[in-house]
Design goal:
The complex is a heterodimer of chains A (152) and B (83). Chain A has 152 residues and is α+β, with helices and mostly antiparallel strands. Chain A has two helices and nine strands, in the order E-E-E-E-E-H-E-E-H-E-E. In chain A, strands 1, 2, 3, 4, 5, 6, 7, 8 and 9 form a nine-stranded mixed beta sheet that branches. In chain A, strand 8 and strand 9 form a beta hairpin. In chain A, helix 1 packs antiparallel against helix 2. The longest helix of chain B is centred in the middle third of the chain and has 14 residues. Classes of the chains: A alpha+beta (152), B alpha+beta (83).
């Protein structure tokens, strides 16, 4: 998978790609012969939202800030769980059925990997500067509301 | 007066990739107030409401309102919705 921006640490890697993510090329990023569990989460664009039909989502990204936030998120996950973790997120148009975000974590046993992946997607949704513009079947465009980064 | 360029992200892209505001100083609060006035002039109270939940950034640093920026360019980040 071609990443236009990426960064890695001792136990993590994250990156941004143009267009849909490619799940088939992903899980090797957390491969470790000492790890007996790999958990994956694929966020996929669905064909409806809030009662309206959707054809695609156009993801807007602040690359510099998003990569920094993803790196901090991965460090937090590695501090909370003994895992290797990788996260890739899309920029641009992702159509229904295609993946917009991939998260994988590996660990010695399954609970840590599963917990890491679950926490990672929860944190990504509230911390990473990425925005969704939904494209309806009629080509109507709708920016979706989200989580404020303001602390006050 | 100082001209600050505001880079638009998310829903603020409805205003284009960027716009300029005139401010008396480079504090984030002054920039926020100038952007609010700009949005009211454009008759976009919907975006002014989003502004109250948005944050500014300079480079890769998120900025609280009491910060004074060094450059003349900021990014305007509405609430995030990745995933």
């Amino acid at each position: 998978m071609d990443l236009f921006s990426e960064i890695a640490g001792d136990c993590w890697k994250c990156g941004l790609t143009d267009g849909p993510c490619q799940p088939a090329e992903f899980d090797f990023l957390v491969a470790d012969p000492a790890h007996g569990a790999v958990a994956q989460f694929f966020g996929v664009v669905r064909n409806h939202n809030e009662g309206l039909a959707a054809a695609a989502v156009d993801y807007d990204v602040h690359p510099e800030l998003a990569l920094k936030a993803l790196a901090e998120l991965c460090c937090d996950i590695c501090a909370d769980y003994p895992v290797k973790v990788a996260i890739i997120h899309s920029r641009g148009i992702v159509r229904v059925g295609e993946a917009s975000v991939l998260i994988a974590a590996s660990s010695t046993h399954r609970k840590d990997a599963l917990g890491a992946v679950s926490d990672a997607i929860d944190l990504l949704k509230v911390r990473v500067p990425i925005w969704k513009k939904e494209i309806g079947l009629d080509n109507e465009l709708r920016w979706l509301d989200g989580h404020s980064l303001r602390e006050d | 007066m100082i001209i600050v360029s505001v880079q638009c992200l998310g829903v603020f892209r409805e205003l284009g990739d960027h716009f300029d505001v005139d401010v008396e100083n480079r504090s984030v609060l002054a920039i926020r107030n100038a952007v609010s006035a700009h949005l009211i002039r454009l008759n976009r109270p919907d975006l002014d409401a989003v502004l109250s939940r948005s944050i500014f950034a300079e480079g890769d640093e998120l900025l609280k309102d009491h910060i004074v920026i060094e450059s003349s360019t900021v990014s305007l980040l509405p609430p995030v919705a990745g995933g």
